[in-house]
């Protein structure tokens, strides 16, 4: 669950900027340590213990994790302070991002301990929290993967939001149509759901085909096409919702995927309920991340795709069909986004509402950048953003004095910091967003 | 720096007639965007610099055909979303569907232009749209894609509302205060991405999208604070702007209380004129357009690209803030979650339709305002939801961005499309 993008850069000579950055990072650790000491450690003294629930009520019993919130916060502050000291003295070199992630995990841990202890409840379901994190991360990860597929061949996809929304709408419409009483083709719940997912993928493919035609063939600015697709899908789905779904609710009650517990591993305490008792779309997401990582970095297709994104002229010279790669990869990206769209309806609540994706596509875009155009990075970022989302939801229960909106802003602030180069370096594919004109 | 435009609408200079056929010679394939044509680029550079939009064919014919095509397509959308046609296909259901389409379009027209009240509503909607469209257009001219108008409207709107309820001054002090507060709020929200672009190279498309999302959450938070929330309310609704901070209605003297058109219209037209002057008559605007045409050349010519990026985004943000002033001080008077309602995205479509020219933005703003107003009437009078308007807008912009489609449908000669506005976020 660590939020670390794999470091793919080679060892470099440290530039003045990097030295400066390293110094900022050290100061940040020490500031975090002081904050933890002030807010969570001294703030928790006398509040007593915090209990993190590690099993759901329905699971076989597993001991909860109870600790003294103030004591843990003191330790966290000490660790953070020493991390800051080491960072300032000699830096962590290649492991600096790993250390940064570790620092944030410690900070979050101390924060949750404090939040739990100061609330009247004194206990907090950690398993439920992580379960929600995984579920919430799915559309973000899938959106980010769609972005990775497109941008690796240098097509900027702002339309992830629209593809998610379109997929969500079509999935529930198709799944519902197959389950109406008088349907000539009647399907059971999981089958109708899967056909809904397939229809959502087709929708995503069509929308991304439009993106590809406009940006590859007509060389229209890709960001403009993306914005247009977003407006189009928002308008059309809202139009059809009011015109069709509101008056025919039976068209808007699709099959919902049920959680499937995976044999044996699903019974492992703590890990089982978090990872192996989810819906099929969640498993599919993780499989996609693995498959895409392998395909992009270990196959001929992946090498050629990346070449098309980095240096299309060179790729063309050695006989790679740049246009075909752009069309196909962008459409694959659209299909992945379609699955993410299906998650919103048949994957969770089973009904469509106007503009129900509510900016998740843009968070997906952020996750792609945060994850440095890498599938595993995209998933890690998706999990971090999903965690922020879940935290936002659960903090309401704990009644912390921190407004949930600020937690919601974290993914966006983090992305701004990343693109500004303040935290880590993010380098997009070299030809990203530029049309290729065959000589 | 030859600047030979006269008046609000540029005159058609001589090169135009040579230009059009040159761009659309048969055999250039789909080469609408003309990216590789060096001579075309040079001419485009000149046009961008002088602000002379020479291509009348492109500026009028394509938009008109695009609008017609989009309306026809939207009629199809109404038709295929008619369940009756699907279940009882036949002459009766079809003729019912066609009469519904006819009624929808009649309502669209009458609801926007058919009466004094309709006209007043159209102008009310248009003034906000014009200001928002100008915000995007200024960015485009300088080669910056301001997707952040939505967030700038939210930020400017909250600032304007705050200035509107927190103070108690006579109108001639209070109203300017509200306007300035809104403009500053927007300018700050737009200036941050500008600053980041200038200092760190962070692409404004990414940062403005992120700033939009942050603004949405910030509004939610603020509406829950004691400072903003209306006393005695549990739902997120702000206090109202005091009477002295509201834009006065233009035809209040007519004793027609439902004529809502307000002084925001004057504000919008003044802003359009000011933007025209700024872009095409001032040194700053020349620098904006030079940076937009070629930042490297501009830097080489001794301009501070850093300073210009910050200034462009602040101006764009301020215009977004003025759009918010128009909306809050002129119409809504109080803030609620998501009060911008997608205006910032409509503004992008609008700026493209208006070719990022202040005059074009005004015309496009009137058109979109009419669509919006007529759409409301359409929703009330028929079973056709107003969201159809978004479909029409998206299609219009799609056709304008790729005039090759229009060329293929109508067999007419068209100029080049919008081409590359931004450079992507690769370095």
Structural category of chain B is mainly alpha
Helix/sheet category of chain A: mainly alpha
The CATH C-level name of the largest domain in chain A is Mainly Alpha
Q: Can you tell me the CATH architecture of chain B?
A: Orthogonal Bundle
Please outline the major beta sheet of chain A: 3 strands, mixed
Q: Under CATH, the topology of chain B is which?
A: ABC transporter involved in vitamin B12 uptake, BtuC
Percentage of residues assigned to helices of chain B: 55-70%
Separation, N- and C-terminal Cα atoms of chain A: 47 Å
Q: What is the H/E string of chain B?
A: HHHHHHHHHHHHHHHHH
Count of β-strands of chain A: 5
Overall form of chain A? globular
Q: Which bin fits the share of residues in helices of chain A?
A: 55-70%
Discrete helix count of chain B = 17
Calculate the terminal CA-CA distance of chain B, rounded to whole Å.
30 Å
The averaged pLDDT of chain A comes out at 85
Largest sheet of chain B: none
Oligomer: heterodimer
Please tell me about this protein's structure.
- The complex is a heterodimer of chains A (439) and B (427).
- Chain A has 439 residues and is mostly helical.
- Chain A has 15 helices and 5 strands.
- Chain A has 2 domains: 16-118, no CATH class; 132-419, ABC transporter involved in vitamin B12 uptake, BtuC.
- In chain A, the strands form 2 sheets. Chain A has a 3-stranded mixed beta sheet with strand order 2-1-3. Chain A has a two-stranded antiparallel sheet with strand order 4-5.
- The model of chain A has no long low-confidence stretch (mean pLDDT 85).
- Chain B is mainly alpha-helical and 427 residues long.
- Chain B has a single domain, classed as ABC transporter involved in vitamin B12 uptake, BtuC.
- Chain B is built from 17 helices and no strands.
- Chain B has helices spanning 15-23, 38-50, 56-80, 83-87, 91-113, 116-141, 149-166, 171-200, 204-222, 264-280, 283-293, 295-300, 305-332, 343-353, 358-381, 388-401, 403-410.
- In chain B, helix 8 (171-200) packs across helix 9 (204-222), helix 8 runs antiparallel to helix 13 and helix 11 crosses helix 13 (305-332).
- Chain B is globular and about 65 Å long.
- Chains A and B meet through helix 7, helix 13 and helix 15 of A and helix 8, helix 9, helix 14 and helix 16 of B.
């Amino acid at each position: 669950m660590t939020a670390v993008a794999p470091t793919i850069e080679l060892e470099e000579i440290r530039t003045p900027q990097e030295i400066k950055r390293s110094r900022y990072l050290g100061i940040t650790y020490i500031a975090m340590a002081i904050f933890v000491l002030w807010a969570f450690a001294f703030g928790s003294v006398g509040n007593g213990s915090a209990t993190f629930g590690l099993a759901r009520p329905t699971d076989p019993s597993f001991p909860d994790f109870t600790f003294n919130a103030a004591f843990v916060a003191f330790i966290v502050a000490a660790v953070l302070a020493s991390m800051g000291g080491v960072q300032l003295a000699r830096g962590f070199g290649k492991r600096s991002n790993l250390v940064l992630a570790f620092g944030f995990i410690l900070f979050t841990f101390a924060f949750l301990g404090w939040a739990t202890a100061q609330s009247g409840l004194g206990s907090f379901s950690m398993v439920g929290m992580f379960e929600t994190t995984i579920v919430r991360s799915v559309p973000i990860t899938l959106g980010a993967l769609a972005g990775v597929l497109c941008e690796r061949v240098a097509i900027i996809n702002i339309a992830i939001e629209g593809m998610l929304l379109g997929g969500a709408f079509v999935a529930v419409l198709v799944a519902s149509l197959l389950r109406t009483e008088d349907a000539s083709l009647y399907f059971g719940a999981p089958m109708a759901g899967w056909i809904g997912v397939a229809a959502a993928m087709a929708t995503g493919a069509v929308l991304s085909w439009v993106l590809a035609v406009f940006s590859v063939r007509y060389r229209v600015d890709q960001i403009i096409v993306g914005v247009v697709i977003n407006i189009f899908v928002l308008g059309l789905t809202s139009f059809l919702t009011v015109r069709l779904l509101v008056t025919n609710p039976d068209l808007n009650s699709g099959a919902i995927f049920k959680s499937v517990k995976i044999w044996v591993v699903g019974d492992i305490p703590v890990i089982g309920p978090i990872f192996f008792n989810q819906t099929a779309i969640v498993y599919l997401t993780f499989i996609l991340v693995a498959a895409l990582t392998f395909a992009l970095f270990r196959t001929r297709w992946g090498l050629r795709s990346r070449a098309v994104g980095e240096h299309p002229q060179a790729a063309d010279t050695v006989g790679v069909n740049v246009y075909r790669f752009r069309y196909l990869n962008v459409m694959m990206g659209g299909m992945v986004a379609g699955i993410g769209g299906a998650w919103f309806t048949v994957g969770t609540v089973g009904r469509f509402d106007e503009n129900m994706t509510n900016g998740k596509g843009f968070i997906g875009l952020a996750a792609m950048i945060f994850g440095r155009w890498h599938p595993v990075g995209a998933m890690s970022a998706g999990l971090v953003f999903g965690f922020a989302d879940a935290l936002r939801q659960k903090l309401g229960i704990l009644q912390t004095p921190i407004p949930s909106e600020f937690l919601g802003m974290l993914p966006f602030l983090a992305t701004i910091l990343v693109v500004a180069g303040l935290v880590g370096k993010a380098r997009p594919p070299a030809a990203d967003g530029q049309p290729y004109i065959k000589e | 720096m030859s600047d030979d435009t006269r008046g609000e609408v540029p005159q058609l200079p001589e090169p135009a007639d040579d230009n059009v056929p040159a761009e659309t010679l048969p055999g250039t394939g789909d080469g609408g965007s003309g990216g590789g044509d060096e001579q075309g680029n040079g001419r485009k550079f000149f046009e961008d610099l002088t602000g002379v939009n020479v291509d009348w064919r492109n500026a009028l014919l394509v938009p008109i055909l695009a609008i017609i095509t989009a309306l026809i397509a939207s009629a199809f959308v109404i038709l295929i979303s008619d369940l009756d046609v699907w279940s009882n296909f036949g002459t009766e259901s079809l003729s019912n569907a066609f009469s519904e389409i006819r009624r929808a379009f009649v309502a669209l027209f009458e609801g926007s232009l058919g009466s004094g009240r309709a006209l007043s509503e159209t102008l009310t909607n248009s003034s906000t749209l014009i200001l928002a469209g100008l915000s995007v257009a200024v960015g485009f001219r300088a080669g910056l894609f301001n997707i952040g108008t939505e967030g700038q409207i939210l930020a400017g709107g909250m600032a304007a509302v705050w200035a509107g309820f927190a103070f108690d001054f006579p109108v001639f002090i209070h109203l300017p205060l509200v306007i300035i507060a809104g403009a500053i709020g927007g300018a700050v929200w737009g200036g941050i991405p500008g600053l980041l672009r200038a200092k760190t190279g962070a692409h404004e498309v990414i940062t403005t999208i992120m700033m939009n999302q942050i603004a949405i959450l910030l509004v939610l938070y603020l509406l829950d604070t004691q400072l903003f929330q209306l006393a005695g309310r549990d739902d997120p609704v702000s206090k109202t702007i005091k009477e002295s901070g509201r834009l006065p209605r233009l035809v209040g003297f007519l004793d027609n209380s439902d004529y809502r058109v307000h002084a925001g219209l004057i504000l919008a037209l003044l802003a359009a004129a000011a933007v025209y002057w700024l872009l095409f008559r001032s040194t700053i605007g020349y620098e904006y357009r030079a940076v937009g045409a070629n930042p490297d050349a501009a830097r080489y010519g001794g301009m501070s690209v850093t300073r210009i990026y910050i200034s462009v985004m602040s101006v764009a943000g301020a215009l977004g803030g003025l759009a918010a002033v128009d909306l809050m001080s002129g119409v809504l008077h109080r803030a609620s979650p998501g009060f911008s309602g997608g205006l910032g995205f409509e503004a992008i479509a609008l700026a493209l339709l208006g070719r990022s020219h202040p005059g074009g933005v005004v015309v496009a703003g009137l058109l979109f305002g009419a669509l919006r107003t007529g759409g409301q009437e359409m929703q009330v009078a028929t079973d056709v939801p107003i969201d159809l308007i978004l479909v029409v807008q998206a299609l219009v912009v799609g056709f304008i961005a790729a005039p090759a489609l229009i060329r293929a449908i109508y067999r007419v000669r068209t100029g080049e499309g919008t081409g590359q506005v931004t450079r992507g976020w690769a370095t």
